[in-house]
Amino acid sequence: MTIKKIALLTALMTPMAFAAPSIRDQIPESVYKVLADHYPVEQIEATTPINLEKKFNINSDFYLLSVGDSVIAVGETGEYILGGDIVNLKDKINYAQEAKDNARKRILSAMTEDKYISYPSTQDETKDVVYIYSDVTCGYCVKLHSEYQSINDAGYEIRVVPFLRTMGTKGFETTANYLNSVAMMSEADMNKRRQLHDDLIDGKVVSHQANNQLGVQAIDDGIVTGIGVGLQGTPHIVLTNGSTFSGYMPSQELIKILDK
């Protein structure tokens, strides 16, 4: 697919706010037929005639660049930048989404054991790993936590990455939630760290006396990587293939996705 066609598809997939001439009158019949195989073309409208040939002279390779969850396509001359989805309709590939998934996979692959709380699979063989960005004060995170056992029993390890929703607010580092989370991640022993997480989920009081730089760094990294994987709210689920699900998802629905 040429860049001209990609740019055209990007324009066509942008919702219009008001009525406009039929798209069929403004694009070649061959392009219309391709779109009709994938989109409700009769609902597509355009505000101006679409003829990028008159606007651009593009003869360049484009490179997909990702910064965390953001992806842009930059021309080799630096003259053009494309945003949004870049879709190959023939091969059913969304190159922008593929780049985002790969960026998330790189973030997860670099994550060391001191950055998360592990809930191991209860099966002899672990099928895969699920990363959950979670805040112990988040009601939906607490709800999902109550379903961890069923996910573990299905053969999946859960790795909880702490993410504090109040990060960046005034006095953030003096709040009970921050100090509690640092206390949890300051514990080097995974079994004890997991117990501290369970206690905080249950609303119990934990000591801050052993808080250390290991815990502080883990919380900082959780915030940075959470933003990097496109977190929009907690819980935020990231699979090892790079796909994400923001918000609470019942464990049985998650297991069905994992089992595919």
How is this structure best summarized?
The chain has helices at residues 3-12, 29-36, 52-55, 95-109, 139-145, 148-153, 176-186, 190-201, 213-228, 251-259; strands at residues 62-67, 70-75, 81-82, 87-88, 93-94, 117-119, 128-134, 156-162, 236-239, 244-246. It is of the alpha+beta class and 260 residues long.
Q: Care to describe what's here?
A:
With 260 residues, the chain is of the alpha+beta class. It has helices at residues 3-12, 29-36, 52-55, 95-109, 139-145, 148-153, 176-186, 190-201, 213-228, 251-259; strands spanning 62-67, 70-75, 81-82, 87-88, 93-94, 117-119, 128-134, 156-162, 236-239, 244-246. It contains ten helices and ten strands. The strands form three sheets. Strands 6-8-7-9-10 form a five-stranded mixed β-sheet. A three-stranded antiparallel β-sheet has the order 1-2-3, with helices on one face. The protein has a two-stranded antiparallel ribbon with strand order 4-5. Helix 7 runs antiparallel to helix 8 and helix 7 crosses helix 9. The chain is elongated and about 70 Å long. Mean pLDDT is 84; it is low at 1-20.
Low-confidence stretches: 1-20
What do we call the CATH homologous superfamily of the largest domain? Answer: Glutaredoxin
Q: The biggest beta sheet, please?
A: 5 strands, mixed
CATH architecture assignment name of the largest domain: 3-Layer(aba) Sandwich
Radius of gyration: 23 Å
Strand content: 15-25%
Q: Shape from CA axes?
A: elongated
Task: Please write the CATH class name of the largest domain.
Answer: Alpha Beta
Strand order of the largest sheet: 6-8-7-9-10
Tally of individual helices:
10
Predict the CATH topology of the largest domain: Glutaredoxin
How many domain modules?
2
Range of helix content: 25-40%
